[in-house]
Structures are given as structure tokens and as C-alpha cells.
Amino acid sequence: MKLLLRFLIVSLFLGAVACKPSQTTSSSSSSTVITNTDFASYMPVPEHVEEVSKPQDIEETVTSNTLPTGDVNEEVNTILGDLASRDLGGIPIYRIMVYSGSNRARAEDVVYNLKERFGNYEVELTFEQPNYKVKAGYYYDRLTAHAEHTKIKRKYRTSFLIKEKMNVDDVQARISKAEERKNASELEDNEENED
Q1: What is the pLDDT of residues 5-15, one digit of tens each?
Q2: Residues of the chain with pLDDT under 70
Q3: CB neighbours (10 Å) of residue 139?
């Protein structure tokens, strides 16, 4: 008890001393007033600085010779043909598994909603006993697949990415179909513009 009382008295004393306002002494005779606030005279002066010449403006004209040449489709077909001859088991692709369950009606509803709401996806309904599986899209890189997956996940929270292998011949067929659709849509756009 005596120890507690001593501790309390010492802490009150130290607290009182620490909180005491400091005394300031002011002497007006020793203070100097700075009237000139231009400190440029105290700044170091750089030695001789050479002027750097500005680069001349060079105009580059874009001509047909500067554009890349070569048919990318021919290069892709060559690479795909080489891969097909090696028998690598297929090309890795990413798909979005939107639904997997035993309810066929629910799976068909998911397919219908995906086509209505997200019309640009290729949706596939398969039956692998005992489940119906709804897969959407074909993506050759994970980054693109993930971006599309985040859009679908807003509506279908249980969807996830899967990695599959696709036969090289199927990849070539898909690329050919995509080119045909692109050419057909360009022709339709040109015909509409002419009218």
C-alpha cells in the first residue's frame, strides 16, 4: 500500500512539472529584423552553361512500303499445320463452365439466358453422365478468359474457368469459320453503305 501511495505521489509530481508552461524570455534589443527577403545573392551561381540544341523536327511519311507485309493467316496456317503433325494432344484453350448439374431444364435455361444476355458467346450444352454441363466461349489465353468470366460471374456466381485441350484441326476449322463470318459481315456493311 505504501508503495502504491509513493508511486501515485511521484507520478502526480512529474505530471505537474511536465505540464508546466515553459517560460519565454523576450528581449527586443537582441532581435534583428530582416528587411531584405531577396536571397538570390546567397544562392550558388552555376558555372558556364552550354545551350543544348533542340532536335530538328523530322517528318516521317507513312507509305505503303512502311506498312507490314505478309499474310498473317498463311503464317498461322503454317504453324497450325506444324503443330498438327507433331501430335501434342491438342492446343490448350480456356472455357467458362457456367453450369454443371443433373437438372436438364435448368441447364437449358442457362443456355437460353447466356445467348440472350451475352449473345457473342458460343455456348455448348453437353451431357456427361450424370451431369449436364454448360460451357461458354473458346479462349486461347487465360487473361481474355478471365475478363469474360468476370462478366458472366455477375449473373452466375458458381461459374469457373476450365482448361481443355482442343484438336488442331478443330482450331483451324474455328478460325476459318470466324474469317468467313467476318467477311460476310463486312460485305453486308459495304452493301448497306452503298444503299
Answers
A1: 888 888 877 77
A2: 17, 19-43, 46, 48-72, 84-88, 195
A3: 19
Which has the closest alpha carbon to 122: 77, 181, 82, 78?
181
Strands 131-139 and 160-166: unpaired
Would you say the C-alpha torsion 79, 80, 86, 92 has a positive or negative sign? positive
Q: Amino acid identity of 40?
A: A
A 10 A CB-CB count for 193 gives 7
Instruction: Show the beta-strand stretches assigned E in the chain.
Output: 91-101, 123-128, 131-139, 160-166
| CA–CA gap between residue 156 and residue 149 (Å, rounded) | 10
For the chain, counts of helices (H) and of strands (E): 5, 4
Evaluate whether 134 touches 111 at the Cβ level (below 8 Å): yes
- Residue 113's DSSP bridge partners are none
Using the 8-state DSSP alphabet, how is residue 68 labeled?
Answer: -
Residue type, 67: L
